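Tutorial handout. Part one gives the primary structure; part two gives the three-dimensional structure as tokens.
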Amino acid sequence: MSKPWTVDRSDIVISDRWIHLRSERVTTGRGAVLDPYYVISYPDWAVCIALTEDDRLVMVRQYRHGTASIAPELPGGCVDPHDPSPAEAAARELMEETGYGGGELVHVGSMAANPALQTNRIQIALMTGARRLAEPQLEPGEELSVELVPLEEALSLAVSGGMEQSMHVAALFAAVAALGRLKLLPPDSL
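Part two.
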């Protein structure tokens, strides 16, 4: 059975407003020493699954430098310290990136972004009845287009690889399950 690791040493490699990287010497539960072992701390991320009255998903398409690709994804970004809640952070990001909002908002849950190396979580919010309220207010690094995609088509993109951001795929399915529109097997039947 797995046991927690102990941290023997921890050194900050870089720390700025976007990333905090530590190099650690750790001892695993079985006694192996890993040196260095890197841990990345980011703020929590929030993503909004926003559905319009006619069952279309509000998506964005933008360039992602890490993979040098342009693909559809969900509106989202960092949870800021001044955000009243993770769901409100997701709604703020939705409004900033797309100009959509005004619907019924619920927090669906959270998932670890990458528990092997990262400390943050992705916070998942669902908005139903979203509508266009304003023009997007993009940050300097954001160049994106807004797309309204029928939910069934978005789910097809998610399973076909057309939606590349894996955390967004997981968030989308969690939100669809929260809506009661995804048939899940009981855990004891697996």
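Part three, for discussion. The first helix runs from residue 86 to 98. The mean pLDDT is 95.
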